[in-house]
Design brief:
This protein is of the alpha/beta class. The protein is 46% helix and 15% strand. It has helices spanning 17-28, 41-52, 68-82, 105-133, 154-174, 192-195, 199-206, 217-228; strands spanning 8-11, 32-37, 59-62, 87-90, 136-141, 179-186, 239-242. It has a seven-stranded parallel β-sheet with strand order 3-2-1-4-5-6-7, with helices on both faces. α1 runs parallel beside α2 (41-52).
Length: 248
């Protein structure tokens, strides 16, 4: 396992699913992990306990990544307490599905504000901090919905497609400062978001997966860890799809 000892990593939306898998994976590899959450302090404490079993210096960092003031506060804390940031994994995201012609403005804005604007705010803050130190790595969590969007998810698909485009632009902007920016694009993974799907719908979707099963959060976090590591030192501006062959 790649050694992250002495490195500070922020994982947004890190109290469950892929985010928690990434947080525990990085802690196991030696990183000081900052666990971001928006609300639900009880679940945040459970996540912190799990991560601290692997790395006792893990911390909770509350904040809504769609709110500029919250993002500014979080990154001021990172600077004052840790002096900088070595890795950002932007995982936080929401879905609020509905057909576009019947979708209200509020539902569109909530998804775009969280999934796309939130990614921009966090990567901008991390990018500034990392560029000043001329090192660092950013990974955003995308979705195969950005590459093959279904009906009823125009807002979610647009937000995740925007994230993938932003990754390419940021890789070009920050590469000269020694900062790498990549994305991981999961397919159907066993998370709370996927469990919200009706069982028959999920089963139908999984029939289209060549590997014939749902993915595990740890299978996504392993790819994230690689992209953050020195082993991926020549990898930037790319999106790695982890979907069991769904969109191949």
């Amino acid at each position: 396992m790649t050694d992250f000892d002495g490195r500070v990593a922020l994982v947004t939306g890190a109290t469950k699913g892929i985010g928690l898998a990434v947080a525990t994976d990085l802690a196991r590899a030696g990183a000081t992990v900052l666990i971001n959450y928006r609300r639900n302090p009880d679940r945040a404490q459970e996540a912190l306990h799990a991560v601290r079993q692997l790395r006792p210096d893990a911390e909770l960092l509350q904040g809504d990544i769609a709110e500029p003031a919250d993002v500014d506060r979080m990154f001021r804390h990172i600077r004052s307490r840790h002096g900088g940031l070595d890795a950002l994994v932007h995982n936080a995201g929401i879905t609020q599905d509905g057909y576009a012609v019947m979708m209200g403005d509020a539902k569109w804005r909530r998804v775009i504000d969280t999934n796309l604007t939130g990614a921009f705010l966090c990567t901008r803050a991390a990018g500034r901090m990392m560029a000043a130190r001329r090192r660092g790595s950013i990974v955003t969590i995308g979705s195969t919905r950005a590459l093959n969007p279904p009906a009823g998810q125009a807002n979610y698909a647009a937000s995740k497609a925007g994230v993938l485009a932003m990754v390419k632009a940021l890789a070009k902007e920050l590469g000269g400062y020694g900062v790498r920016v990549n994305a991981v694009v999961p397919g159907f993974v066993d998370t709370a978001m996927t469990r919200q799907m009706p069982p028959a719908q999920l089963a139908e979707n999984l029939r289209r997966v060549p590997l014939g099963r749902i993915g595990r959060p740890a299978e996504v976090s392993a790819v994230v860890r690689f992209l953050l590591s020195d082993e991926a030192a020549y990898v930037t501006g790319t999106s790695v799809v982890v979907d069991g062959g769904l969109i191949s």
